[in-house]
Amino acid sequence: MSETSGVLVIMEQAGAGWHRISSEALAAGKRLANELHTSCSAAVLGTAESLAPLTAELANASLSSVYAVEHPLLARYTADGFVAALQQLFSEVQPSHIVFPHTYQVRDYAPALATRLGQVLLSDVTALHVSDGIPAFTRQWMGGKLNADYRHRGSGPCLLSVQAGSFRADASTSASTPCEIKHLAPQLDASQIRTSPGEPFREAARTVDLGSAQVIVSVGRGIGEQENLKLVEDLARALGAELAASRPICDAGWLPMERQVGSSGQTVAPKVYVAIGISGAIQHLVGMKGARTVVAINKDPDAPIFEVADVAAVGDLFEILPALTRALRP
Amino acid sequence: MKIVVAVKQVPERDAPVRVSADGRSVDSGDTAWTMNEPDAYALEEALQLKERGEGEVIVLSAGPERVESTLREALAKGADRALHIVTPEEGPASLAARDILGVAQLLADAIRSESPDLVLTGLQSDDLGAGQTGVVLAELLGLPHATLVLSVETAASGDAKRIRVKRELEDGWFQHIEMPLPALLTIQSGGNRLRYATLMGIKRARSKETRNIESPPAAERHDEIVRVSLPQRTRQTEILTGPANEIAAKLAERLRAEVGL
Ligand SMILES: Cc1cc2nc3c(=O)[nH]c(=O)nc-3n(C[C@H](O)[C@H](O)[C@H](O)COP(=O)(O)OP(=O)(O)OC[C@H]3O[C@@H](n4cnc5c(N)ncnc54)[C@H](O)[C@@H]3O)c2cc1C
Ligand SMILES: Nc1ncnc2c1ncn2[C@@H]1O[C@H](COP(=O)(O)O)[C@@H](O)[C@H]1O
């Protein structure tokens, strides 16, 4: 078997810059390489023009190599294009560990890539620890109610994707001399690409900007029925707060989608965020972690939302809310 | 259009969770089970596609005997027939003994025998949360795929051998993608409104066919679960418990101060 070459991080481009989780994946990759006493490299896919400024920046990020995987067919993301290109990169580089940011794009192609390599991707990793030279990777089960530590087994590369907000992007440690940028032009043919993606679009213009709200009252599935929303609206009024919700409330059409907080909704950073009947799944947390004070009301003492709460009210929202609203009225 | 929908049975959301004595799995002794939520949306999308044209909806699940209740629920909502890959609750041939690739291989074998035009899965399972089985299946079956799909339409060209889907991107963006059939889609929740099973549907389900498929022994896993634990709290949290009006009074005081009422 040929020599493997350490940790390889697959960075994701977004617009003219990086997808925000890319730098967190890079931090995770560097830490893993450090603890395994091996090297860390990074790669990014696109066209030669779009990659030039990005790889120049990466060359200064204390890495052992930077790979620019360039092809006109990579101008627009497709799973077929990315899987084929990365498979060629890996056979050239032979990495022992491959780290991805857990983005929607990675969700779309990395499992297929792992399958093509005869491997299994450890998706949505929140932590890693190395003991006796063997890394273990933590994933969440049951919407964050449990942590499960996984190890890779057998030969071949270990693939993992890291969750948003789990690894701190390191303060740009600028290397004294930039590392080498290696260019790879994968063999790709338009006939290999089976899907035709359209341009991204937004639905209607947003009429509420939760991003600038100072106080937010947010409601989740614990509210049970649409009619019960009145309880939450009353509290929001008493606090002069904007109303927001978790995804299932918007999925059911009880509140408009523009009031959804989380990875597929809005990102908010109010002074106070009151989470009512929300369990605290990671896709919700990434949208509200920036709140200064988090108050959570939930009947389940082990609800993951309490892990990020400053004030945890353990009880039945149907009893607490009316009393709370009454107590707040002048 | 012949559509296979993969549905997974998962613990009810409010079910309490306990780590097993071995510290490496979940104790599901008295768990109540339900259909994985995005899978219910996948089933709904399949039923609506069928209602718009012609075709057949086949539901597929791998798991122990208890998954029959989830398959029956799908049949009661309108699926035409069911495939049940029967795995033991525990031991070397159980679902837990298989990794994502192993489970996807079970599903792929069953799907191949049906040669469907469209395969739908949920985006992600509520228990393991891998978000991968659909895409792995697409690769195993050699099908083009799209993930995070909210709705399925016929292609703009009107070509019956192609579809156009609306998919969710991050931060409130969307995108259309076109692809040829057969194809695989992973369905995100919220694209349609879920129906309830009617009494008539429940009655009809009794006469619908469920085919049991034996499961081969598990292949070697590519990963290993070494520890399952409850997460540690990281913040300094003020915990309020007790009678509701006492909690409310303390909350009101704190909120007044924080909000500046
Ligand atoms: C790709 C992807 C993107 C996603 N994007 C988002 C997103 O942007 N935003 C988002 O929110 N989710 C998103 N989700 C969904 C997310 O994973 C969770 O499913 C969702 O956040 C759960 O919503 P919830 O907390 O309201 O419901 P549940 O998880 O069902 O929680 C309900 C909570 O209410 C509590 N409760 C019940 N009854 C009472 C009572 N009487 N009193 C007090 N408490 C009670 C329960 O203990 C429970 O904790 C996404 C998922 C995926 C896979
Ligand atoms: N045992 C199973 N039986 C049927 N479908 C499954 C099974 N496991 C996973 N799936 C499907 O794969 C999707 C994604 O699951 P996961 O990759 O575990 O997040 C689910 O929503 C189901 O549609």
Strand arrangement, major sheet of chain B: 11-10-9-12-8-1-6-7-13
* DSSP strand count of chain B: 15
Biggest β-sheet description of chain B: 9 strands, mixed
- How would you characterize the largest beta sheet of chain A? 9 strands, mixed
Instruction: Report low-confidence residues of chain A grouped into runs of 5 or more.
Output: none
What is the count of DSSP helices of chain B, taking H or I runs of 4+ residues?
6
Mean pLDDT of chain B: 95
Radius of gyration of chain A: 23 Å
Q: Give the distance, in angstroms, between the N- and C-terminal Cα atoms of chain A.
A: 75 Å
Structure summary, number of beta strands of chain A: 18
Bound molecules: flavin-adenine dinucleotide, adenosine monophosphate
What is the mean predicted local confidence, pLDDT of chain A?
Answer: 94
Q: Largest inter-chain interface? A: A-B, 96 and 82 residues
Q: Could you characterize what this model shows?
A:
The complex is a heterodimer of chains A (330) and B (261). Chain A is of the alpha/beta class and 330 residues long. Chain A is 27% helix and 27% strand. Chain A has 8 helices and 18 strands. In chain A, the strands form 3 sheets. Chain A has a 9-stranded mixed β-sheet with strand order 9-8-7-10-6-1-4-5-11, with helices on both faces. In chain A, helix 7 links the parallel strand 16 and strand 17 (293-298). In chain A, helix 3 crosses helix 4 and helix 5 (229-239) packs parallel to helix 8 (317-328). Chain A is elongated and about 70 Å long. Chain B has 261 residues and is an alpha/beta fold. Chain B is built from 6 helices and 15 strands. In chain B, the strands form 3 sheets. Chain B has a 9-stranded mixed β-sheet with strand order 11-10-9-12-8-1-6-7-13, with helices on both faces. In chain B, strand 6, helix 2 and strand 7 (81-86) form a beta-alpha-beta unit. Chain B is globular, with a radius of gyration of 21 Å. The model of chain B has no long low-confidence stretch (mean pLDDT 95). The chains are: A alpha/beta (330), B alpha/beta (261). Chains A and B meet through helix 4, strand 7, strand 8, strand 9 and strand 12 of A and helix 3, helix 4, strand 9, strand 11 and strand 14 of B. The complex binds flavin-adenine dinucleotide and adenosine monophosphate.
